[in-house]
Amino acid sequence: MDWQKIVIHHTASPTEVRRSGKTVPVDVAMIREWHQTKGWSDIGYHFVIMPDGRCAEGRPLCRPGAHCIVGRRNSIGIGICLVGNFSETEMPEAQLVGLVNKVKQLRADFHLKLGDVELHRDVSGAVTECPGLYFPTDSFKKKLEEKA
Q1: Is residue 41's pLDDT more than 70?
Q2: CA angle 56, 142, 78 (to 5 degrees)
Q3: What are the GO MF terms of this UniProt record (predicted)?
Q4: CA–CA separation, 131 vs 148, rounded Å?
Q5: Nearest to residue 102, comparing CAs of 28, 31, 50?
Q6: What average pLDDT does the segment 128-134 reach?
Q7: How far, rounded to the nearest angstrom, does the alpha carbon of residue 3 sit from its chain's CA centroid?
Q8: What are phi and psi of 57, to 5 degrees?
């Protein structure tokens, strides 16, 4: 794949849900299930960042995503999703750090510029507030600019 962008999303869901009488965390397997229930072949995102900052692999990077159809982002953009609803709550600091670390790694691996990192809502033609109204845009950009 010729990756030219990184697109940031949120699940717009709680971080935990009730299943079979138990509270369980939303994770890659659950998101994959949600997406496959829609008839998709796999999870739409390439990576998922958990609230504690851990990064889990989703759809393999050898396959286009299913996360942002406008602007050909599924074909040219690596999709990273944050578990949580940042239109309702603020992102945990550990999750922001995990996101920044993953984005820095992907930028280095694929020789991408800072301007190649986009929030879903900022992709031309996208009609969404994803990754949420409380996504810490300024802090995210500042941390991306910091040297390792």
Answers
A1: yes
A2: 35
A3: N-acetylmuramoyl-L-alanine amidase activity; zinc ion binding
A4: 25
A5: 50
A6: 97
A7: 15
A8: -80, 140
Give the C-alpha separation, 61 to 63, whole Å: 5
Place of tokens 């999750």: 95
**Of the CATH numbers 3.60.140.10, 1.10.1520.10, 3.40.50.12780, 3.40.80.10, which one belongs to the domain with range 5-145?**
3.40.80.10
Q: For the purposes of burial, counting CB atoms within 10 Å of the CB of 38, is it exposed (0-12), middle (13-18) or buried (19 or more)?
A: exposed
Sorted by where each begins, the domain ranges of the chain are 5-145
At position 61, the amino acid (one-letter code) is: L
The confidence score (pLDDT) of residue 23 equals 95
Pairing of strands 16-19, 5-10: unpaired
* Residue 148 binned pLDDT confidence (cut-offs 50, 70, 90): low
Question: CA-CA distance, 112 to 3, in Å (whole number)?
Answer: 8
Query: Please, what is the average pLDDT of the chain?
Result: 96
147: three-class secondary structure by DSSP: coil
